[in-house]
Design a protein that fits this description.
single chain; about 325 residues; alpha+beta; six-stranded mixed sheet; four-stranded antiparallel sheet; about 20% strand; elongated
Length: about 325
């Protein structure tokens, strides 16, 4: 498996290079750019939206370097190497290529608009440029996939799930296990969605309010508390009792733990996948429950082995008590 430094370099390099290329393009064309810039184009290729030149660099930087951070965080949080995260790397490279080309093409479209006070309104971006943008994104995505695939030592499938040991408890002894887990990805997505909603509301778009609500809910649910006690497993937001996921002991057959990547569980958030569901906050240690229905439920949380051991002990105790009552 390659070093962590190599993984960081691979993850952030495309977004940093794309940012540098767009910045160099902006500096080179600065004297030819209008203020404001044409930043939105209709289906006919003509400009119909404008942004101040001073705002271009901060927005471009936020998009390009932000996409690099969103690629880097899950890769660093995972115990697996790049070979097991080819899709995440390829997606990050693809986004860098798409955004980098789109921003550079926008600058050239403005620079070619000609002289005059209203020249930004003359800027045009032909529809065929969209095809080139997606082609660049596809090439960059393929490059990212190939680079990640070279990390062959880390591409092996996860090992067998180890049976979780029981946590020794004396008769009548009570135990509770709890951990708080957060998701930088869900927090960033929630904040970004709320910010987009605020911008849309400022320009009078009716969908802005819904986006703000969705963004705030996502941000609140980005940090949850996972608890194991005599009632089973519960996952709830750190600041609100609802919504909450609860798995009673009588619904659980057994509990195990293992390392898992967010993408292998279907992505971040509440995921429904073949054979079960999962609450995914980040890659790393995860608790897996085999349910009485045969389905599986997973939640990513630190110290999952202890949670699994306690759950198995409590399940065994609950079944013994049920049998004695029967």
């Amino acid at each position: 498996m390659r070093s962590a430094r190599w993984r960081v370099l691979v993850a952030v390099l495309p977004s940093v290079l794309a940012w540098a290329v767009v910045l160099a393009t902006f500096v080179g064309l600065r004297d030819r750019l209008p203020d404001p810039l044409a930043t939105h184009f209709g289906a006919d290729g003509k400009a119909d939206g404008f942004t101040g030149t001073g705002a271009f660099l901060p927005v471009m930087t936020a998009f390009l370097l932000g996409s690099g951070v969103l690629t880097l965080v899950p890769i660093l949080r995972s115990a697996k190497g790049l070979g097991a995260q080819r899709f995440a790397v390829a997606l990050g490279y693809s986004m860098s290529g798409l955004l980098g080309y789109a921003f550079a093409a926008l600058l050239f479209a403005n620079a070619d608009a000609g002289a005059g006070a209203v020249r930004a309104s003359r800027a045009s971006l032909p529809l065929w440029q969209l095809g080139i943008t997606f082609a660049v994104a596809a090439v960059m995505g393929a490059l990212g996939w190939l680079i990640a695939s070279r990390d062959t030592a880390s591409a092996a499938e996860p090992g067998e799930r180890a049976a979780a040991p029981r946590l020794p408890l004396a008769k009548g002894e009570v135990a509770t296990w709890t951990r708080t887990v957060g998701s930088p990805v869900l927090l960033a997505v929630g904040a970004g969605t709320a910010l987009l909603g605020a911008v849309l509301m400022a320009v009078g778009a009716g969908t802005g309010a819904w986006l703000i609500v969705i963004g705030l809910v996502s941000a609140v649910l980005a940090r949850c508390r996972v608890t194991v006690d005599r009632r089973g497993l519960a996952v709830a937001s750190w600041c609100a009792p609802r919504p909450r996921v609860r798995m009673p002991l009588d619904r659980i057959e057994r509990a195990t733990s293992r390392e898992a990547t967010a993408l292998s569980l279907g992505g971040w958030g509440y995921r429904i996948r073949g054979g079960g569901s999962a609450l995914v906050f980040r890659s790393g240690d995860a608790l897996f429950l085999t349910l009485a229905t045969g389905r599986e439920f997973a939640v990513t949380v630190d110290d999952a082995a202890t949670a699994a051991a306690l759950l198995n002990t409590l399940i065994e105790r609950d079944r013994r008590a049920t049998g004695e009552r029967g």
